[in-house]
Specification:
Oligomer: single chain
Number of strands: 46
Radius of gyration: 25 Å
Structural class: mainly beta
Length: 642
């Protein structure tokens, strides 16, 4: 067993050459500069029932000064429960890291902070996922540029996603082709209504008009009975705000707490490759922000979400994988969400009933290493990831986690630690995390691997690499109790996990685990242990160091008994779970192997269970932002609150 895991780690290294004590990085503050249009929706839930008790929409102009402060103007705040419309002008502060990850004062609830991502083109998306009041929200802003966009620029093919949880509970996709003058043409709608399950509402609406003012569109849907996006009594007006290039828009109804996101389509063959920043909301209820890497049809992603019904933590870090096949239209779905990729690789998402949702993902901004590091040693601000799962940097870090760090000029050449405990200096390289020297597993010029010291428990961690006395830029990371990531046989977080039978052989399609069998899973990121050990030391072979956090595991969505959760004996930076494959409820074939801590959940790797290996992974559909054991079945009721 030990030989196999040690060999796997060693081969990985040899192949590589072919909130808090510290302040959040604000070196990217200039990414937000000037006047923006913004819209924020807020849904307030009952702590006892989860029913909707209030819904708000806040929209208008927000001005960022490029140095950490903002003001608002020309605003409207719609409070549906109170039946009021007001025009507050809150102000606040913000901090943007070099990566584009940002935090700013929540305009609607100033005591709270919105966690957000600044994407390519300066578009800002985020959510107040850490709020103690357990409300869900979604915030979007885009730069307002002059000369203003006009009606003539609104021409071609567009797809938009919409979600309204404040009244009926409806969401879906709509396509239309504005004529560049005043008409949207025929608006083709495919929608789902709360309470109607997977039954789809299909409508074709005509007579929808628009005008432009100050770079925004005011769209009017005529009054129609039983029509989605229309009031049966009065014309319904929507404000749409556009990105500077016109390829993306967002907005909502003038007097309702809904959200719309849209993209221009059909201009060229779409692509979905690289790092993306995303935010969204669904009626689980969960609002989230995060990031994902897309490459050749595969996504590895992270979402920091506010899960109202999560019993162990109000917020949860969720890492996952997904698959996509765009074809020529840019449309695809994963069984839970319909996605459309439009111009500039911007992706919008709309939930498939009964799972209503809305999301937007935009390419991450380009990084200029020459502006971030003057020493020549560059640590990529988006390049600190879990060494097992490759979960994106927004997942944060946990004590004892084995990390992979990417950059340039990180070391003079490759070198692997020759013994355990791992050294804190290797080939004249040090990794400092909150001023503490981290044990280093290997170094190369482009990447290295290090273990987070157990003393790193503050809300924000500052990470820096020092190569032969020359220091890199600082990269700030959020910290967590746990950040589980299963090591995989493909060494990229995907496919079969590093799971072994009692005889030490790997679990795979040709040698699957059997129901009722106990297997060992190797992973990292389970956090603090007891008894404690020195940083970089091996897991004890007697008086085992057990994880102090409660760790659970699921096979194909079915909870598995965990017999052991702690450090893997004789290894550094490696944890071990002994789990028993559920005797019932697991379909034969490839199943998702999910691991959860009190504040994190991962659903990336697979485990083969005895039987046909051709079966579809069993938990993928269920697990898109729905960690097993944390779902609720009560719908959001009492929606008609206005």
């Amino acid at each position: 067993m030990n030989r196999l895991i040690r060999l796997s780690l060693l081969l990985s290294a040899l192949l590589l050459p072919a909130f808090a004590q510290n302040a959040w990085d604000n070196s990217g503050n200039s990414m937000l500069n000037g006047t923006y249009y913004f819209r924020q929706i807020v849904y307030v839930l009952s702590a006892n029932t989860g029913n909707l008790t209030d819904a708000l929409a806040f929209y208008g102009n927000i001005n960022f000064n490029g140095a950490g402060s903002y003001t608002t103007s020309n605003t409207q705040l719609i409070d549906l429960a109170q039946g009021t419309v007001s025009a507050p002008t809150p102000s606040g502060t913000y901090s943007v890291a070099a990566s584009g990850q940002a935090f700013f004062t929540n305009p609607v609830v100033p005591k709270d902070t919105i966690s957000a991502m600044v994407s390519q083109g300066g578009i800002l998306v985020g959510s107040a996922t850490e709020n103690a009041a357990l409300y869900n929200d979604l915030f979007i802003a885009a730069p307002l540029v002059q000369p203003f966009l006009t009606a003539s620029s609104f021409r071609g093919s567009y797809t938009m996603a919409f979600l309204d949880e404040s009244n009926q509970g409806v969401g879906g996709l709509a396509t239309f082709s504005p004529d560049g003058s005043s008409s949207l043409g025929t608006v083709a709608i495919n929608a789902y209504v709360e309470g109607n399950g997977s039954s789809k509402v299909v409508q074709n609406l005509t007579g929808v008009t628009y005008i432009f003012s100050s770079g925004a569109a005011k769209v009017t849907f005529p009054a129609r009975t039983n029509a989605v996006l229309s009031d049966p009594r009065n014309p319904t007006q929507y404000y749409l705000y556009f990105s500077p290039d016109g390829n993306f828009f967002f907005g909502g109804a003038q007097f309702n707490a809904d959200m719309i996101v849209g993209v221009r389509t059909g201009t060229s063959t779409p692509a979905l490759n690289g790092l993306f920043y995303e935010a969204g909301f669904d009626d689980n209820p969960e609002s989230f922000f995060g990031s994902f890497s897309a490459n050749s049809g595969t996504i590895v992603g992270h979402q920091r979400l506010l899960n109202f019904f999560n019993s162990s933590s109000a917020s949860l870090s969720y890492t996952y994988n997904d698959a996509y096949n765009l074809g020529t239209t840019g449309a695809y779905n994963n069984g839970v969400t319909n996605y459309v990729v439009g111009a500039n690789n911007i992706r919008i998402g709309s939930g498939i009933g009964p799972n209503l949702s809305i999301s937007v993902a935009l390419p991450a901004p380009s990084l200029d290493a020459t502006k971030i590091s003057s020493s020549g040693v560059f640590l990529n601000p988006t390049g600190i990831v879990n060494a097992g799962s490759s979960a994106p940097f927004t997942a944060g870090i946990a004590p004892g986690e084995l990390l992979t760090l990417y950059g340039s000029n990180l070391a003079a050449g490759p070198q692997v630690a020759s013994s355990i405990p791992f050294p804190t200096t290797l080939n004249n390289v040090q990794v400092m995390i909150n001023g503490i020297a981290a044990p280093i597993y290997y170094v190369t010029p482009g990447q290295l691997s290090a273990i987070v010291p157990y003393a790193v428990t503050s809300g924000i961690a500052q990470v820096q690499v020092i190569n032969n006395g020359k220091a890199s830029n600082f990269v700030t990371m959020q910290t967590a109790k746990t950040a589980p990531g299963v090591l995989t046989q493909s060494q990229n977080g995907l496919g079969y996990g590093d799971v072994i039978h009692a005889d030490g052989t790997l679990v795979n399609a040709g040698n699957p685990a059997k129901p009722g069998e106990t297997v060992s899973v190797f992973l990292t990121g389970l956090g603090a242990v007891n008894p404690t050990i020195s940083d970089g030391a091996a897991g004890p072979t007697t008086n085992y160091s057990l994880a102090t956090n409660t760790i659970t595991a699921f096979v194909g969505g079915v909870q598995a008994q965990v017999g052991y959760a702690g450090l893997a004996p004789t290894f550094a930076g490696l944890y071990q779970l002994n789990i028993t494959i559920p005797a019932t409820g697991v379909t034969a074939g490839d199943n998702y192997l999910d691991v959860s801590g009190p504040d994190a959940y991962t659903s990336e790797s697979l485990i083969a269970v005895a039987g046909s290996a051709s079966a579809e992974p069993q938990s993928q559909t269920m697990m898109r932002r729905r960690p097993a054991g944390e779902r609720h079945t009560a719908p959001l009721t009492n929606r008609a609150i206005r």
